[in-house]
Amino acid sequence: MSDAKKRVKSNTKTENKTNNDEKTSAKRPSVNKGLPLRVMSRIVVIISLLIIVYYSSKDTFRTFAKQSDLLPGIGQVVECSMDYIKELHKFEGCAPRDCKRFVTDKVVSVREVEELLRIATKGLKYGGSFGGASILDLHSGAMSKGQHFINIYEAADLKNLFTQEDFNVIRIVRDKIKYSIAHHFGVQPDKIYSTHPTFFSEISDKKAFTEHDEYWHAHVDKVTYKSFHYTTLLYLSDYGIDFKGGRFVFIDEKINSTVEPRKARLSMFTSGAENTHYVEKVTSGVRYAMTIPFTCDKKYAIEDPSINKYNKIHSN
Ligand SMILES: O=C(O)CCC(=O)C(=O)O
Ligand SMILES: [Fe+2]
């Protein structure tokens, strides 16, 4: 082979070698990068999913009133439901400036609430539902017992259980709440009346026995209790301390708002569909609260519970 030919051949070899090297080196990085790329894309998908789950769960719930906060007052205006507004036109001076919810820890004192809790437990220890939810209504006398209700004003062994001082505490607290509604909703205090049923509730984690124990269903107070125009809830125990679960939830289109019960926390809201709500199941401990409603309709007004009524029934 001539020198020139040898040189050409050796150049060709070198070229081929270089080409092969290029091919290999072009392939190699794709092998090295391919694996991390697949892993990377999986990580990206997982992180995106986690972000979606995090934000969507965040979006459906927000804490409107946290148990550990001492709230001077926090409000949220909501659009009145048509049914609610239509009906209120009949009652001069009782329609709210705005439909809303308002939570405050400053209207009722912890001392007053301790008194109310003493009154509630004093009665309920003679009653109590088989299931998780019991009520005591000092106006009608209804108290849960077993799977039924008894009338405490007709039960001879409950005679002298409640004193005029007990009824006074309830009246004082209820009046404070009435003026607070008048102030925050822009209505005349003499145009709103205490209505039925006003009651103490006691909720435990016991399994429901009758439908009366099923407190966790979403509802509109105006539908459940025809007479309600303003609902107020006074909490007598602390979420996360005295009981677990049992938060109050306002159901809204995008974000549900939770109210965490706190001793002496007062929640007030217009009773129409704008404030549809439910109570989460209590998972441990015992939750005490008081439902104190008001009506604009005088025909649904109730008298104060008093020792006279109590004595009248017992002397019959
Ligand atoms: O106890 C609560 O937080 C709510 C009770 C309730 O929804 C009601 O009495 O209608
Ligand atoms: Fe309710």
From TrEMBL:
Q: Where is the region Disordered?
A: 1-30
Gene Ontology cellular component annotations, sorted alphabetically: membrane
**Source domain of life:** Eukaryota
Domain spans labelled Fe2OG dioxygenase: 194-298
- One short Pfam name that applies is 2OG-FeII_Oxy_3
Residues that span the membrane, as ranges: 35-55
Query: Where are the compositionally biased (Basic residues) regions?
Result: 1-10
Q: Could you say which cofactors this protein requires?
A: L-ascorbate
The answer on whether this UniProt entry bears the keyword Iron reads yes
Keyword set includes Iron: yes
Which GO MF terms are attached to this record? dioxygenase activity; iron ion binding; L-ascorbic acid binding; oxidoreductase activity, acting on paired donors, with incorporation or reduction of molecular oxygen
Q: Which UniProt keywords apply?
A: Dioxygenase, Iron, Membrane, Metal-binding, Oxidoreductase, Transmembrane, Transmembrane helix
Where is there biased composition of kind Basic and acidic residues?
A: 12-25
InterPro entries membership: OGFOD3 (IPR039210), Oxoglu/Fe-dep_dioxygenase_dom (IPR005123), Pro_4_hyd_alph (IPR006620), Pro_4_hyd_alph_FE2OG_OXY (IPR044862)
Put simply, this protein is called 2-oxoglutarate and iron-dependent oxygenase domain-containing protein 3
Q: Which gene encodes it?
A: LOC112045554
